[in-house]
Design a protein that fits this description.
Layout: H1 4-10, H2 32-38, H3 50-61, H4 66-81, H5 85-92, E1 104-106, H6 120-125, H7 138-143, H8 155-161, E2 162-166, E3 178-180, E4 186-190, E5 197-199, H9 205-216, H10 229-235, E6 237-240, E7 245-248, H11 249-257, H12 264-280, H13 285-304, H14 309-314, H15 333-341
Parallel strand pairs: 1-5
Antiparallel strand pairs: 2-4, 3-4, 6-7
Helix pairs in contact: 9-11
InterPro entries: PIF1_helicase
Length: 348
């Protein structure tokens, strides 16, 4: 038989202090055995009384899905207004919603670019000592390109002019020859239409020159780039396989860079001028501009209102009656109630 003391024991609160090292202050509380079985994020806590356990379960099961409710409400509103009917038709008929005359290709030219891990199924079949756990990116495919003379090009040309395809893809009657890479399970073929527009990250100082050399200097391996990269860019020389002679690195880079950055000089000068003006700009510069604009507007209004015969001849105005007959209307409660009841939620 239950008594009031049993309920008092359920409502008793306990405090638990979890000790941890200073370097683990950003680590959630976890259990090693459960973490191996769960294999996902974990943030556990001790449950010391039945009331806390029951309260947690009830609050979790009855938690309102506010975000989902707002999403469904917005979706219902769009469906009611008919704003997504056209999109639904396009998707149902597999018609493209967007179209571009040129494609975009991101070029991870820097040596420290991010890479994706291989799928878990592939990693499980690999040797635990094998460090080749990342998927190949565009830079890896560039360095693995065929050894023929026509591929003595820079990474920017490779990304813009060639399309990477899988060797498992069966292409019937290709318009351009398909060339397989040396070791990777990919192939390349030259784009038939317009070349793609390249995109790449912007770096400062040493990383900037490494990225610049990797993009616009034809190389077969990153080991061909000598450190420091800025000095190699300014003073270095390399053998040009296309012209069969020694050339300056800077000359080759600038020659290839002009294809993709035609106005790089003007852009650099504009950026330098903007940075210089930004440093010299006063904190209240905008306030002075607004004040001068208001002063000019006031001066213009004074001229227009001036009683000058010559000014009146130039700007002839028609005299209009500016008096408006205002009439105040009254409505009784019985007349207003039906109007209020007919309002929808948005009008209210």
């Amino acid at each position: 038989m239950l008594s009031w003391s049993d309920f008092d024991n359920l409502l008793t609160k306990y405090n638990w202090t979890y000790e941890e090292e200073p370097n683990a202050r950003w680590v959630n509380q976890y259990n090693e055995e459960l973490l191996r079985a769960w294999d996902a994020n974990m943030d556990i806590q001790f449950v010391l009384d039945p009331y806390a356990c029951a309260k947690y379960l009830m609050s979790y099961t009855t938690k309102p899905e506010r975000e989902m409710s707002l999403l469904l409400e917005a979706t219902h509103k769009e469906c009611r207004e008919g704003n997504i009917v056209q999109e639904a038709i396009y998707r149902a008929t597999k018609m493209p919603l967007t179209y571009s005359s040129r494609g975009f290709v991101f070029v991870p030219a820097h040596s420290n670019s991010c890479k994706f891990l291989k799928s878990p199924n592939i990693l499980k079949e690999m040797d635990p000592e094998d460090d080749n756990i990342y998927m190949s990116n565009l830079a890896d495919k560039y360095f693995d390109r065929p050894a023929e003379a026509e591929f003595d090009i820079c990474m920017a040309d490779f990304a813009s002019e060639y399309e990477i395809i899988s060797i498992k893809k069966n292409i019937k009657n290709p318009k351009t020859p398909i060339k397989r890479l040396q070791t990777l399970n990919f192939a390349i073929n030259k784009r038939c239409n317009r070349n793609a527009i390249i995109r790449y990250p912007y770096f400062n100082r040493e990383n900037y020159f490494e990225n610049l050399l990797s993009l616009y200097l034809p190389i077969r391996s990153r080991n061909e780039l000598k450190k420091p990269y800025e000095l190699f860019y300014e003073k270095g020389e390399t053998f040009d396989n296309r012209q069969q002679c020694m050339r300056k690195v800077k000359e080759i880079v600038l020659e290839n860079r002009k294809k993709y950055e035609a106005h790089v000089k003007e852009t650099g000068e504009t950026e330098s001028l903007f940075n210089e003006l930004s440093l010299n700009m006063k904190d209240n510069e905008w306030a002075e501009i607004v004040a001068n604009k208001e002063k000019h507007s006031t001066w213009s209004r004074e001229i227009e209102q001036e009683n000058n015969p010559d000014f009146n001849i130039i700007h002839k105005r028609k005299n209009k009656n500016t008096f408006i007959d205002l009439k105040q209307t009254y409505a009784t409660t019985d007349e207003m109630r039906p109007l209020l009841e007919s309002m929808n939620n948005e009008q209210q």
